[in-house]
Amino acid sequence: MHTDRFVVFKFQDEWLVTYADREQTSFATREDAERSAFDAADILASNGHAVSVLIIPDGSDDVSKPYSHVEGSVRKKNLN
Fold first, then answer.
1. Which residues pair with 3 in a beta bridge?
2. Of 28, 3, 25, nearest to 13 (Cα)?
């Protein structure tokens, strides 16, 4: 089964969300980029698509801490 993948990463001074390795949307903050990626993934998942969201930290993040700003409903939802 094909998996639709969203990638969130920082490039220069903006956060980008890439979908299907082609489409990119830029955001001023990481939180806005993550929200957009998770919202789009949720829509695809509710229509039966397999989805994943990859968040690439920018180096200043503490990757050992969980993302407290990710909504609980998104973290709990099983997208498989």
1. 50
2. 28
How many Å apart are CA 73 and CA 19, to the nearest integer? Answer: 22
In the 8-state DSSP scheme, what is residue 29? Answer: S
Max CA separation in the chain (angstroms): 35
The pTM for the full model equals 0.70
**Contact between 29 and 37 (Cβ < 8 Å):** no
- d(CA 34, CA 8) in angstroms, rounded, equals 7
pLDDT tens by residue, 6-45: 999 999 999 999 997 677 899 999 999 999 999 999 999 9
